[in-house]
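Notebook p. 47: complex prediction with histidyl-adenosine monophosphate.
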Amino acid sequence: MAILKAVRGTRDLLPPETALWNRVEATARAVFARYGFGEIRTPIFETTELFARGVGEETDIVSKEMYTWEDRGRADSDKGQSLTLRPENTAGVVRAYIEHKLADTGMLQKLFYIGPQFRRERPQRGRYRQFWQIGAEVLGPAWSGSDSALRDAEVLEMLATLLDELGIKGWRLALNSVGSSTDRPRYVAALREALAPVKHLMCEDNQRRAETNPLRVLDSKDPNDQEIINGLPKIADYLDDASREHFEQVKAALDACGVAYTVEPRLVRGLDYYTRTTFEFTVPDGSGLGTQNALLGGGRYDGLSEMLGGPKAPGIGFAIGEDRLILTLQAQAEAAAETKLDVFIAPMGVERNAEALRLAQELRRAGLSVEVGDGTFRLKKSFEAADKLARRMVILGEDELASGILTVKDFAAGEQSKVPRNELAEALRR
Ligand code: HAM
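Predicted complex, structure tokens below:
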């Protein structure tokens, strides 16, 4: 019979790697709590219309990458509807903000999420069809201060803190402003004009984008088109005074906090809802991501709520590619030692198994992580198993049980010591 496998672009996460995932998520939760964020959990599928309206029909995500199906009605009288596995979570969060009338609280909403997203992209290292995002959104009515540049800088400073606490080395922050909803049409018109005489020289995708959504030409990676793209007008020259002032305030607040950044005039990002601040954090080549060096991305979306039929609710947020974060940590070799257990208990003889389990119970209840061997193992086999799994081994033989003095082997120190049983938990904690 043919062996069944996980679907292309999806993967199983197994121990010990999942310990690293949990550590990353625990650190993110702890950092988010310090900045006043609460967790939101939205459904994994939504109506297709949400993403078409929110993310934009002409984006790669909506036009090529969504998992969409026609969901049949249960009865003849029920209408079917088009549903989609979420390719990102900002649209879902804003939908929930509108649906639960969070605007009525008058308060700034600071929400974070951790969960899978789905995009039908060509799988490669750091790019999957089911991938995880750790994201956050700050939004609310304008009088809650949601459009203030302070919020942009706070979110960026929080990300710098999180990446530092996780031990990510060499990250870079690329920053831009794509202007307000009034700046944008002027810029898009200028782009159209500049593209008109040269677009026939570009790849087929860019020829189409030049017509339908010229902004998307800027994030094209086609190497043959880069020279033309580099010569196109820059959005910075089309910002009105208010957008320019907003961007200056974001930069000044980052300078005050000592968060380094580079302004990248072409960083417009691949989703249509962005206004004003956009950003990406990348890691240096050789950090385990291959060509996918964007660790996370985000920006401001002051018009998204209205695009979805809600009240005016300026906002800013980001999503970290958790898969990419993990690959980077592994490549930067931070986390190797942490997956080892505190202790391995080696019972000498099957008749010691029950006592070994009782000792494990005692130590686990004292908060230690413990694995138990088996009385059928010879001492050599116990040593080998223990060395792979744990930092220390406790030998449980007839003499040890009779005297209540246990032998503890510490693998890193290469030392063996005798410890009274009632002091064992304390000794292992050190
Ligand atoms: P995005 O840039 O499309 O933004 O995705 C954010 C991050 O998710 C990327 O930087 C990358 O690390 C990760 N990512 C995206 N696609 C894949 C994939 N196929 N495999 C692995 N990782 C991937 C958003 O999704 C916006 N919702 C972010 C945002 C929140 N903007 C405002 N608020």
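Notes: Residues 17-34 form the longest helix (18 residues). The mean pLDDT is 93.
Next step: compare against the earlier run before touching the bench.
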